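so the lab meeting is tmrw and i was supposed to have these ready like two days ago... anyway. pasting both below. for each one the top line is the aa sequence and the line under it is the structure tokens. i havent really looked at them closely yet so no promises
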Amino acid sequence: EVCKLLMCIHTVPTGMNAAVRATVRVGLYTGAKVFFVHEGYQGLVDGGDHIRPATWESVSMMLQLGGTVIGSARCQDFRTKEGRTKAACNLVKLGITNLCVIGGDGSLTGANQFRTEWSELLADLIKAKSSSHLNIVGMVGSIDNDFCGTDMTIGTDSALHRIIEIVDAITTTAQSHQRTFILEVMGRHCGYLALVTALACGADWVFIPEMPPDDGWEEHLCRRLTEQRGRGSRLNIIIVAEGAIDRSGKPISCEYVKQLVSKKLGFDTRTTILGHVQRGGTPSAFDRILASRMGVEAVMALLEATPETPACVVSLSGNMAVRLPLMECVQVTKDVTTAMAEGRFEDAVKLRGKSFENNWNTYKMLAHLHPPDTKSNINIAILNVGAPCAGMNAAVRSAVRIGLLQGHQMLAVHDGFDGLAHGKIEPIGWSGVAGWTGKGGSMLGTKRALPHEFMEEISLSITKFNIHAVIIIGGFEAFIGGLEMVQAREKYEELCVPLVVIPATVSNNVPGSDFSIGADTALNTITMTCDRIKQSAAGTKRRVFIVETMGGHCGYLATMAGLASGADAAYIYEEPFNIHDLEVNVEHLVEKMKTTVKRGLILRNEKCNANYTTDFIFNLYSEEGKGVFDCRKNVLGHMQQGGTPSPFDRNFGTKMGIKSVLWLTDKLKECYRHGRIFANSPDSACVLGMRKRSLVFQPLAELKEETDFDHRIPKIQWWIRLRPILKILAKYKISLDTSEKAAMEHVIKKRGLVPQ
């Protein structure tokens, strides 16, 4: 019988509890004994009541809680051989052979040292009867996102949510009073939080430890702030990482920057140090799903481990769970610190990984360049199509600004294809998109009308306004509209211009992309609503809630919200169900009501089944649950399309907007023939989407084969493979083999840091 030990150490970012819950439940599901270690390594050394068996019900209320319910403590005893021997003794007594450690690089390094010494420690224990090896899997919990090898650590997204909430609140008062605000965010050795915050709020300047400003930055900063005010801006936002330094290694503090701006420019300046508010609060949907996936992958890694398997850490790369050798990641993380200490700042940024490097390059493009004096004579039109969603405006803003920096004239098209046909087109400048990053909905206005209704008028508008390229931001209507424009090229030569579709819809149903702008914000709205619904049931008990989500025929929102909120079932179109399945779900809830967790949550995608409607399921559950539980239903509706964009959607939209314009700029050079633009090849009309680990352009014509047009969804959707995790965590008896598995990769070779 395999035994596992679950422990939580040192840093306590929000989101850890989801990892604890998933590891415990999947561990128990596989037949293993699972133990909590309370108070981290200190509990491991002290033993006794600090190491307790975990049960299924003991983790039922964890998902929505911040911090860690099993406690965390720094431990000097574990740094000594004597302390580690005591810890080994406590494990031997319980027959534990596997450790799952959640913490930062220090915690994980300590775990690896413990594993390396295991045989030696056992030899020191008299007549020890235990396995001669110890398996270790790590999950990284750190709000700083300072661990190399993973795109995101547990807690980072939640910390960004806290920061952006505060920045948005400060922005309104700064605008009212024409103030300059300087905000300090956490990140002693890593500037990730500061960098992404700067992108997400359109900050004027950011200070991060990996890339100190050039000498003479004080003059440059004051010049930039003055220019922004000259363009009509009523506020300035400066973000400072707590570990920010100048080129000589001298710290740059909020107070120093405040004194500089106040004295040199005379601006009304305020400072805010966010502090530990960044560590707390409710975990975001992204962190809950990330931690749950990591927890499942950690158990799988332990089950497959052999004495020869090195200690690994479960990481995220794009939307894929990967396993990396723990000490390689720790080494690269140390290399970053060394590079910064030696003044090799470009190397430090590269060592942080592609995600960090892309963020830095995006920031540089938007923040530190002036529009060129010479114009390109290129006009690029931008329009929003379909239903509005949060993050659209961030994509428009970055596309407009990067277009202006390329020397192009950017044209804003109001009200989608309808506006394109009827000439609702006007030039839009730098200040025209100021403050758009944090605004929800669509500032340009959007309609569902498709171009086939007025293709002739559209072709005339393209000629009249001399449009050379088109950016279409929207959902499935944007995809269809792009296809219709490509098909009409044969009839209308004016439509032979490059075009790019940027997926932006809460439904996340655009072919060619694993993620759409707006889906993360909608997912957080659903998750937070489900939290409140569950809380209301905690008092009344024996209550089941049926919640209907948006998404059309796409079950992404229902599935991911089910994972994030701990739902008992999520009905979707992609996974057909019948009356027998509904009966099994009702019986499952009847059994659940006999435990200490006397509540249920069922999610239903709005078009999962034409006959098994929300009302039908509500009535069925109400009838079958008589005397055991009562039911309530909630149709969330259009609240899922509103709200301010999440940090992810702001950042994602910003990157997509920039990449689309840079691609169009290159494509226009390719398509310039005989003094005019002529683009009629399939690769001149593409969808820009995230596929696994990178942003890629895919011709619209090729994506037709991958699309179910009747139901407006891609034929293959990556998130379907996460469905078994949802069922296992809800205690359904299914095969674990259907879950995604990850092979061990090598972070050092992957980054090209050593010869391959």
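ok protien two:
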Amino acid sequence: MSSAIARVCLVVAAAILNHPLFFSQENATLPEQDEELLTRMRLHEEQMRTHEERLVREQSMLEEEERSRLESQPQQSEGSPDEAYVWYFWSAVSLVVFLAVEVSRVDLANVETWTIEDEEMYPGNGSIGARTLAIDKGLLRQFCDRCLHTLSHENWRVQEFVEGLADNLLESMRNVCNTETRMELGDFLGVGSMFESWKVHKPLTCDLMVPFTLPAPYSFQYHLWCSPASRVPPDLQGFAAIEVNNKNLGAGCVCESVVVGEDVLCLLHSKTARLEEAERSEEDGLLCSRDTSSLSKDQVMRWFQFSVSKAWGRIAHKYDFELAFHQLDTAGALKVRFRSGKVIVLNLIPAVQLDDTEAYFVSHFPSDTSSTPDTYWPMSLAVYERNLLKHFTRTLPQNPCHLHCLQILTFLHKKQTGLTGESALTDYHLKTVVLHLLVLRRQPSSWGGGFLDQRLRDALAFLQRSLTEKRLHHVLIGNRHLPGELGVPEVFRTAEPVNLFRVFVLQRALYVDTVRHLEEMLRNAPALLQEYTPHLLNGAVHSSLDN
């Protein structure tokens, strides 16, 4: 009897462990290049099915033998009635366990399977392991003291200058908008590495989000990717469609209710959709995609670029430096060039605020060169990310190493990019890795200055494993382990995690290049730190970092 019960339990356990709920669904569609992997999976499935059928047959034979034995010894079974029902009891228990797994849709994707204490990190096919990376603590300390601290002081001066320039430029833009388009501009929000105190690269770059709102009677309506019955395509996780509504006319339009030639601002139709007799200026045109009410990124960027150019023309006489568009196809990408030759890049990013939260939909990310549909806006939680870093700065010991860890990662990534070329790995991925480690590691003392080398290995190991699994989740979306005081909206905390490495599932060539980039970065890390530290000790801080 005990043998039969054990085999039944084995069958149930095999069925549970091979249930589809235990496998992530986000990578359900694999590219054609993974045909070999699919073949192995099908073979494994057939083997498991054959093994399960064999166990069922053996179980049936044992049941038949047990039934025959009981029939041949009726008097003995009558003496112990409880034993006759043991089989039914254990069968019922197995059935309950199986049904519990069936009906409970556990969000396994939200469970972090990697722990910081794991010693066995699989680095990939023959690549160097991050855990075994030889990093000298004294070398790291010299690198931080001679380089990162000096750059921090310079970054503060640049940040102060940029904030003053942005204030004056936005005030001039408001005057332009008030007299011509009546668009309302909010105060800028400094985001990114410069305003989070981990900027290392040259030229110094400042990212400023500029929220804008529509004049009455227009308003925004949001269709999030994570909302029920969302119309956002599945491959655009973290995006939203934004519609422009007219509160007074509903689906109607302002320009339909005015006489020809009257000066009104229409956000739904382009100037070609109006009568040809009505001459309108370029900035007074539509902000929506043609013949729709969907807010267009291209149209907004065109309007924003026109406003920036016109606003600068009004205040340029106050300054003795040159200001030009850094990228003609990107709105608000400005380059400040001083007479000394020093350059500062200023990215003014038009943004739409989500209701009364600190989440914004932006026209573009400065570091993102991918192309997405014009009417789908990427979401930025940069304000919450900045607040999360501030939270850990308050709770960690004095002189914590988390920012230095992030700075060294971006430094190594920058130098490796100079050696082997661009890859799909970005500074934002590195920042996400460090934020994940901060959330996972609950002991603040482990982020003390003396543990920099260990935390650097942790970050590289986490990045290496995430790249191997082609899965790096956004730290704020679908993460229920965030500090409550952060105030991330519930709709994002409870949403399905967004995989920042999803592109690697779909593009194998890009994935292979990125894996090679990381392997080379790990292999060259000690040499890069050793090579640049002597320059730092000789005082050539800026030139060594710029090379």
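from a quick look at the 2nd one: The mean pLDDT is 77. The chain is about 45% helix and 10% strand. will dig more after coffe
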